[in-house]
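RECORD TYPE: inverse folding
INPUT: structure tokens
STRUCTURE:
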């Protein structure tokens, strides 16, 4: 939902800003396990993932799916729904940063306006 204030461009209101570079939620998991002093290898072993798959998630090369989110919830006590919402928001930001996709959406909106 976009916040509006009279006389202020909606894109300039802090609640409407998107980071210039989307932050993959895996980076947040990485920060959390580092903060707790857990190595990636130990964490992977604890949750039953291969170290390479966990590393791909933590480095934004693989999405956090429902299974991973539930594993993170069990190990870290941070709700799976949060990880899934963060992943969905990341995916949306990545899509919105693709000019050709945004042009496609604009064309669809023009056609839909006449329906």
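DESIGNED SEQUENCE:
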């Amino acid at each position: 939902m976009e916040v509006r204030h009279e006389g202020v461009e909606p894109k300039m209101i802090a609640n409407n800003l998107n980071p210039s570079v989307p932050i993959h939620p895996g980076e947040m998991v990485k920060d959390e396990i580092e903060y707790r002093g857990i190595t990636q290898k130990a964490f992977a072993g604890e949750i039953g993932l291969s170290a390479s798959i966990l590393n791909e998630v933590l480095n934004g090369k693989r999405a956090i799916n429902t299974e991973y989110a539930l594993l993170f919830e069990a190990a870290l006590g941070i709700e799976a729904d949060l990880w899934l919402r963060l992943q969905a928001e990341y995916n949306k930001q990545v899509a919105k940063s693709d000019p050709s996709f945004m042009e496609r959406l604009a064309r669809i909106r023009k056609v839909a306006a006449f329906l």
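NOTES: The CA atoms of residues 47 and 71 lie 6 Å apart.
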